[in-house]
Amino acid sequence: MFQVLKAAWALLLGMGLLMIGNGMQGTLLGIRGDIENFSTIQLSIIVSSYFVGFLGGSRLAPLMIRRVGHVRVFAALASLISAIMIFYPTVVDPLAWTMARVVIGFCFSGVYVTAESWLNNAASNATRGQALSLYMIVQTSGIVIAQGLILIADPSGFVLFVIPCILVSIAITPILLSISPSPGFEATKPMSLKVLFTQAPLSCVGMLLLGGVFAAQFGMAPVYGAEAGLTVTEISSFVSAFFIGAIMTQFPIGWLSDRMERRKLIVIISCIGTVGAIIGAVFGGIIPLLLLAAFLIGSTSNPLYSLLTAHANDYLELEDMASASGGLIFLNGLGAIAGPLIIGSSMDIFGPKGYFFFLGILVTAISLYGIYRSTKRPAVAAEDSGAYVTMAPIVSPVAVQIAQEIAIDDAKENLAP
What is the DSSP letter of 15? Predict the structure, then answer.
């Protein structure tokens, strides 16, 4: 672990600051939009637009890197992120915010692709798993810290928009001044969705539905809080609960994943998420129970991302595992784009409870489809399954490819005589 920190401290510090900035703007826009009397549908479109940009960035950023290099791409995109964060309070308009969120989603995706390439280059084969785990912890912790910073100023003013702008600007410095060399970049040719679905249908369906769940907790949670009449402190705590749950359960669920049949674990975890959604829908007016609901959903939805990827690997040939990552990322992105739009409509029809109705439908659908798939083909024995590698839905295809490479190396070791 010390070796990883020594090689990648500047990158991890910079990414931590970037994630604090991203976490602040994600929550702040929901709160400020409500103050400015944006409708629920308008806010859901604004949230969805981030994932449109993010998905586009994951496709185009590799082309940009190959053309002008990591350093220029990273500096240009981070600078643009900083500028957009100041743009938000300057032009308070739903359409302007929607366009800005597309751009900032694109920029963050490109920054992640660049940073994760550097991270892979800084780690050896022996430390790559530790590096990825540290990176996930830094990213998720950054979002949690961001919720505390939301409380230090009035969301109707400029200060809370200036803080993430400063953090993003500072984040560039340690990374660009680091002595670490810029890595080479090679993108894996993606597997077609048809082939991927044939090989791993539960992972495909699960990733699509999980995209909607993640968009709900990352972008629509503050919109729910504002619609439900929560205070800024309560909204901050509500959003934090999702990601605290994610940090606390990734490794225990990973431990279970290597010791029991993964489809059963996917069903069990999804059912726990359903319980969280029911608690939120029925007892959302009681703050401790609302936080419990968010904790249960976050503690199950984030590990499901890693679990569904590992489950797909159990049914893929070694040479196909890396190429499958692109398809899984794409499906998750489609779900994240559609999720806020459906949640917004659900909240318009049912009120704030529509938020948890939608979440409950998604996680229940994952569990039911997992049960259905369990009747269609034999399970892979726990001792024959591949490695579970910690990931989160906020990563780019590069991190997923790194995780796939770790899983491939583990599988090769298990096959070695």
Answer: H
pLDDT tens, 341-351? 999 999 999 99
The distance in angstroms from the start CA to the end CA of the chain is 29
User: Residue 327: exposed, middle, or buried by beta-carbon count in 10 A (0-12, 13-18, 19+)?
Assistant: buried
pLDDT of amino acid 403: 67
Place of tokens 């702040």: 28
pLDDT band, residue 184 (cuts 50/70/90): low
Q: Are 105 and 49 in contact (CB under 8 A)?
A: yes
Angle of helix 94-122 versus helix 128-149 axis, rounded to 10: 150
Given a contact cutoff of 8 angstroms between Cβ atoms, the answer to whether 294 and 244 are in contact is no
* Kind and range of the H or E run holding 365: helix 353-374
- How far apart are the C-alpha atoms of 314 and 312, rounded to whole Å? 5
- Which residue carries 């199950």 as its tokens? 300
- pLDDT at residue 328 in the model: 82
The 8 Å CB, 24+ separation contacts for 176-181 are 176/71, 176/74, 176/75, 177/10, 178/10, 178/11, 180/7, 180/8, 180/10, 180/11, 180/118, 180/121, 180/122, 181/121
Position 325 confidence tier, pLDDT thresholds 50, 70, 90:
confident
Average pLDDT over residues 78-93: 92
Residue 7: the pLDDT is 63
Query: Distance between CA 139 and CA 79 in Å, rounded?
Result: 19
Q: Give the separation between CA 28 and CA 354, rounded to whole angstroms.
A: 21
* Residue in 136, 68, 41 with CA at minimum distance from that of residue 342: 41
Q: Which string of DSSP letters, residue by residue, matches 33-102?
A: HHHTT--HHHHHHHHHHHHHHHHHHHHHHHHHHHHH-HHHHHHHHHHHHHHHHHHHHHS--HHHHHHHHH
Q: Helix or strand or coil: residue 287?
A: helix
Q: What is the largest CA-CA distance in the chain?
A: 65
**Residue 99: Cβ-neighbour burial (10 angstroms; 0-12, 13-18, 19+):** middle
In this structure, the number of other CB atoms found within 10 A of the CB of residue 329 comes to 26
More confident residue, 136 or 370: 370
pLDDT category of residue 68 using cuts at 50, 70 and 90: confident
| pLDDT at 319 (0 to 100) | 65
